[in-house]
Amino acid sequence: MQQSRIVVSGASGLIGSSLAASLTAEGHEVVRLVRRAPRDATEVRWDPERGSVDAAGLEKCDAVVNLAGAPIADRRWSEEHKRRIRRSRVLGTRTLATAVASLRQPPRVFLNGSAIGFYGETGDRPVDEASPPGEGFLPGVCVEWEQAAAPAREAGVRTVYARTGLVVSRRGGAWGRLFPLFRAGLGGRLGDGRQYWSYIALHDEVAALRHLLERSDLSGPFNLTAPQPLTNGEITAAMGRVLHRPTLAAVPAPVLRAVLGEMASEVLGSARVVPKRLLESGFRFAFPGIEDAIRAA
């Protein structure tokens, strides 16, 4: 990809910061959306809750990447936090998509974050991008999240939805919490361990996002997950092998429900998601296997 000006929201998060660093390292100009007064020309102010963004700062950008959203797994799901999860994604996306559509010279691509939560509970049934949304809180959020990008799509901007799985990284997300437990010898399966976890190495997540930015023929939803989802039990065993720690501890489902509340359904739920469209587009994973992904982290 030739040197470009790329606007990124959520640039302080795990994925956003890694993507921004990768783009900057190759000479691209990364403009970060911030909710405070900008410090320099590499920042643009926005307020997704109020639906405002400094559209002038988006002019002459080649791409807009929207990765902003309140953390999902950092606390129990109170009704207030569920509203925050939904509003931060839907309002932020609508704000940016509307601003993009209003530009005199719109960007070539609007890459919007999404999640495999779109599919809900799938059991041991594999699902791909052609599968319908599931039922429940997170599938509902993901559907609204993607629909909020409609202004950009309707304005003729190539629009992509990156449905990301569980990112394997020691710096954050689910694995950011798992690594310390396993290193301490306290790791183990969650519930019966039969639920599928669709994971992706952080390196591959960033590479896939860049692939979607660069390929002008790609639009619509793409699952960003490794080719072979594994069960929680299989992943637990792999963590033990790589870190050379026992994995005898197990957290029964009733305990998880007592501690996590409604969010326990996501930990115990099964999502067997495959990246069909990503593979068909020619993307190649650097760390497709779980042990390689863990070592890379």
Q: Quick summary of this structure?
A:
The chain is of the alpha/beta class. Helices cover 38% and strands 19% of the residues.
Explained architecture:
There is one protein chain. The two termini are 26 Å apart. The strands form four sheets. The chain has an eight-stranded mixed sheet with strand order 4-3-2-1-5-6-7-12, sandwiched between helices. Strands 8-11 form a two-stranded parallel ribbon. It is an alpha/beta fold and 297 residues long. Helix 2 links the parallel strand 5 and strand 6. It has one domain: Rossmann fold (3-Layer(aba) Sandwich), CATH 3.40.50. The chain is built from eleven helices and 14 strands. It is globular. Helix 2 (79-102) packs parallel to helix 3 and helix 7 crosses helix 11.
Class computed from helices, strands and strand pairing: alpha/beta
> What CATH architecture would you give?
3-Layer(aba) Sandwich
Strand residues, percent: 15-25%
| Strand ordering within the main sheet | 4-3-2-1-5-6-7-12
Task: List the defining traits of the structure above.
two-stranded parallel ribbon, 14 strands, Rossmann fold, alpha/beta, eight-stranded mixed β-sheet
